[in-house]
């Protein structure tokens, strides 16, 4: 359930499910104009305060066009709540249960270009889970768009679930990128079970972990997953970072379900925002980056001393590979399209 102590902070026009109860502009242009008006004070180059981050919980639609409409609507709500960066679930452009054998490169390129234009219109960093192609192979990826709509990073899931392996090729990098100058990393769904992906990125300077997810479980398993027993708070604490988790929710098709429970967790394990198990939602939190020190990972670089040179070589390799692979995918060209990898601490 939504945390009641957060309700007082929500605008009066929002109800308990995170959906607006007021009417909104009907056209794409009108909605984006409203978002730009709301967000004028949050343009790049303004005085650095807390980073305001949103996690979107989403019910997937059957078609790409319908999912893009949902994404636009939910991004509009995040813009009204003045989010600087928004995380969408795994495979949000298609839905995870999509028939990927029918997916054409031009279709996904067009969908991603549309999301990039939304990032421009809403003047937000948008992190969207999506299939992407590279050299004819399909990857399960997270694509990062900056406020100008440039695709500045793409992370492809390395550790594939058995459902992934039917359609996707594995990636070969650890995620490392910047959001408004803040170093961040990502894992996708099943990869929460591989803590080294996070630890190495935090050693390399990451202070926020973005985790797009798409639950695909039987109803009984989905019910057991509800209530936060997912290790997210522990991962945030052990690395002294913020953890942003955006999940799908509800019926996923083929008898599969997703538990929802999208959340934002602080370095002290405090839950800063929590969605329910039933509804689409946008949860938002201010991240005070002075508290995301990464201190335990940084200490791990030097102790025990016999491991220190090995850790440092691995971190250097992580930075090189993140930079090399960050845009090696079939991505739309919007804005400058340059890399935003945090290659130094």
Please specify the SSE layout and strand pairing.
Layout: H1 4-7, H2 28-38, E1 51-57, H3 64-80, E2 85-87, H4 105-122, E3 125-134, E4 137-145, E5 151-156, E6 177-179, E7 182-186, H5 195-203, E8 208-212, H6 219-225, H7 232-239, E9 242-246, E10 249-253, E11 256-259, E12 263-265, E13 271-274, E14 281-287, H8 295-300, H9 308-325
Parallel strand pairs: 1-2, 2-3, 7-8, 8-9
Antiparallel strand pairs: 1-14, 3-4, 4-5, 6-7, 9-12, 10-11, 12-13
Helix pairs in contact: 2-3, 3-4
**Main sheet summary:** 6 strands, mixed
Order of helices and strands: HHEHEHEEEEEHEHHEEEEEEHH
Number of domains: 1
Basic shape = globular
CATH fold category name: Nitrilase/N-carbamoyl-D-aminoacid amidohydrolase
Radius of gyration computed on alpha carbons? 19 Å
* CATH architecture designation: 4-Layer Sandwich
**What order do the strands of the largest sheet run in, or round the barrel if closed?**
5-4-3-2-1-14
Cα separation of the termini: 38 Å
Residue share in β-strands: 15-25%
User: How many alpha or pi helices?
Assistant: 9
**Mean pLDDT, nearest integer?**
85
CATH class: Alpha Beta
Structural class estimated from helices and strands: alpha/beta
CATH superfamily: Carbon-nitrogen hydrolase
What portion of residues is helical? 25-40%
Annotation, overall tally of beta strands: 14
Note poorly predicted spans: 1-24, 37-47
Describe this entry's structure for a reader:
This protein has 9 helices and 14 strands. It has 345 residues and is an alpha/beta fold. The chain has a single domain, classed as Nitrilase/N-carbamoyl-D-aminoacid amidohydrolase, CATH 3.60.110. Strands 5-4-3-2-1-14 form a 6-stranded mixed beta sheet. Strand 4 and strand 5 form a beta hairpin. The protein is globular, with a radius of gyration of 19 Å.
């Amino acid at each position: 359930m939504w945390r009641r102590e957060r309700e007082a902070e929500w605008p009066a026009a929002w109800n308990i499910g995170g959906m607006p109860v007021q009417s909104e502009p009907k056209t794409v242009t009108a909605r984006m104009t409203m978002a730009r008006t709301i967000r004028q004070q949050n343009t790049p180059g303004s005085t650095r305060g807390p980073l305001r981050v949103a996690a979107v919980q989403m019910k997937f639609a059957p078609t790409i066009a319908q999912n893009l409409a949902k994404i636009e609507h939910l991004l509009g709500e995040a813009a009204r709540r003045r989010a600087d960066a928004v995380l969408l679930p795994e495979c949000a452009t298609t839905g995870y249960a999509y028939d990927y054998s029918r997916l054409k490169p031009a279709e996904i390129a067009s969908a991603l270009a549309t999301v990039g234009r939304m990032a421009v219109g809403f003047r937000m960093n948008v992190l969207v889970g999506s299939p992407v192609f590279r050299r004819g192979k399909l990857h399960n990826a997270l694509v990062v768009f900056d406020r100008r709509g440039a695709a500045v990073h793409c992370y492809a899931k390395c550790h594939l679930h058995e459902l992934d392996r039917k359609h996707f090729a594995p990636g070969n990098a650890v995620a490392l990128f910047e959001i408004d100058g803040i170093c961040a990393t990502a894992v996708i769904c099943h990869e929460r079970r591989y803590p080294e992906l996070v630890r190495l990125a935090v050693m390399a300077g990451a202070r926020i972990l973005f985790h797009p997810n798409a639950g695909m479980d039987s109803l009984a398993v989905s019910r057991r997953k509800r209530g936060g027993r997912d290790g997210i708070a522990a991962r945030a604490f052990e690395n002294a970072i913020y953890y942003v988790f955006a999940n799908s929710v509800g019926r996923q098709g083929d008898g599969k379900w997703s538990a929802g429970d999208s959340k934002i967790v602080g370095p002290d394990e405090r839950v800063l925002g929590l969605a329910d198990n039933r509804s689409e939602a946008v949860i938002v939190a201010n991240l005070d980056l002075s508290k995301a020190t990464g201190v335990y990972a940084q200490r791990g670089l030097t102790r025990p001393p016999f491991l220190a040179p090995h850790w440092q070589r691995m971190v250097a390799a992580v930075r090189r590979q993140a930079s090399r692979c960050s845009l090696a995918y079939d991505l739309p060209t919007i804005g400058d399209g340059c890399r935003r990898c945090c290659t130094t601490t």
